[in-house]
Amino acid sequence: MMEVWSITDVGLVRKENQDACAVCQHEESGRTLCVVCDGMGGAAGGKLASRIAVDTFMAEMRKVLRRDMTPEQLREASSYAVTLANRAIRDAAEISADCRGMGTTLVSAVSYDGGAVLSNVGDSRAYHITADGIHRVTKDHSLVERMVDRGDITAEEARHHPNRNLITRALGPDMSALSDEYICPLEPGDFLLLCSDGLVDTVTDQEMLFEVIHGDDLNTCLDRLLSISKSRGASDNVTAVLMKQR
User: Which of 10, 52, 143, 172 could connect to 103 by a Cys-Cys bridge, CB 3.0–4.6 Å?
Assistant: First the structure.
């Protein structure tokens, strides 16, 4: 299993926290399982969508995880769990008119011996952090990411673009919200950081790297990142999960 820390906070502007996260040390399989979701779609809908996604994803993965699963089998299981989460959100939206159109991002990680399998829908992110640097593993499903890919804007310009929060894929609104999966090898001492865009929009990659690798205490690392976000206004909810390969 991996060491793991998590934090979620409403921030300084929003009235409620529509992010959700969960971590699980799955004793039977010896695996660490983590997920971060960032809800959207009205005061009630966003909070409900992210909670449904977290609960559905975690329940399915806890049910199927086995010690002998290969990374490819974990990838398939994670993809199916995302599909179930999407279905559960859409079913809930049909029941209440107030929740029509609600949705959420999702980024998850499940460990295997020597790495982790990641799944992603939307613009919540997973970073691989080592003493040598920080690397974003996931790719945002967003308008500005498409613009960066086309060469219309730079990655730095994307950080401040007025449409940076317009996502092109999410659980709930899409009938078939396919996730991207990544198999990420990890060396002992490597880190994975899962986070919502509330952290990304206010804390730079280099600041994340510094606090994880050079900060005083890993037990307060996420608190320090949250403090940086709040020092810059924290206009959105902030959620992060930090995982360390043993």
Answer: 172
Give yes or no for a contact between 96 and 187, defined as CB atoms under 8 angstroms apart.
no
* Chain position carrying tokens 């403090």: 227
Q: From residue 57, how far is each of 27, 79, 187 by CA, in Å? A: 17, 10, 26
CATH topology of domain 3-139+170-244: Phosphatase 2c; domain 1 (3.60.40)
CB distance 222 to 6 below 8 Å: yes
DSSP bridge pairs for 209 = none
pLDDT at 57: 98
State the Cα–Cα distance between residues 163 and 181, nearest whole angstrom: 25
Adjacent-strand bridge partners of 81: none
Taking the C-alpha atoms of residue 68 and residue 59, their distance in angstroms, rounded to an integer, is 19
All residue ranges of the chain with pLDDT < 50 are none
Whether the predicted model's global pTM rises above the 0.90 cut: yes
User: Which residues 6+ apart lie within 8 Å of 162 measured at CB?
Assistant: none
Per-domain residue ranges for the chain?
3-139+170-244
How far apart CA 187 and CA 37 sit, in angstroms, is 26
DSSP 129-191: EETTEEEE-S---BHHHHHHHHTSS-HHHHHT-TTTT-BS--BTTBTT-PPEEEEEE--TT-E
2 vs 27, 67, 169, CA distance in Å? Answer: 12, 14, 30
Whether residue 15 contacts residue 22, with contact meaning beta carbons closer than 8 Å, is answered with no
Gap between the Cα atoms of 202 and 36, Å rounded: 17
